[in-house]
Amino acid sequence: MGRVLLDMAMTLDGFVAGPNDEDGGLHDWFFSPAGVEAVDESVRNTGAILVGRRTYDLGDRMNGFAHSPYRVEHFVLTHDLPERIARGEMKFTFVTEGIESAVERAKVAAGDRNVAVGGGASIAGQCLEAGLVDEIQVHLVPVVLGEGIRLFDLPGVGKIELEKTRVIDAPGVTHLMYRIVKGD
């Protein structure tokens, strides 16, 4: 079975979005020629994606799912089912039973490939708090937003020990990969 990979772009000051969900240049690298290798590797290794309802709604409003290179099942953790399903080629499964259920269902769908937790700081925090994440990949973008939604605003999580496994410097982004050191 694959790993659960928290995979997010983040500014130097720790934000994954501006105060009104604006991108702030966080994903420019993803759509540039310099990002092709990292994106191709991620698409090959990802078997399912876990997002929150806020990320789902935002992607639907901006028609972002129609342009995604990830043609895998997306699991959306939500309290309420949407009135309509987003346009695009991927399948959406809405999970109302909690984060553990969402991750388990995504792992089954992903098979030997990874589950990417890439859809929002809240989902990332819930997965970290529940001890469900195996690795963290941060795409560190040289931008300072000053305000917005922080990735690691995790008051209930406590200390997480990490082991650096890879650093790739690329134009406009530095890709940092860490393995979470789990106790025996």
From TrEMBL:
Signal peptide: none annotated. Pfam families: RibD_C. GO terms for biological process: riboflavin biosynthetic process. InterPro entries: DHFR-like_dom_sf (IPR024072), RibDG_C (IPR002734), Riboflavin_Biosynth_HTPR (IPR050765). Residues 4-168 form the Bacterial bifunctional deaminase-reductase C-terminal domain. One of its GO terms (molecular function) is 5-amino-6-(5-phosphoribosylamino)uracil reductase activity. It comes from the Bacteria. This is Dihydrofolate reductase. It comes from Rubrobacter tropicus.
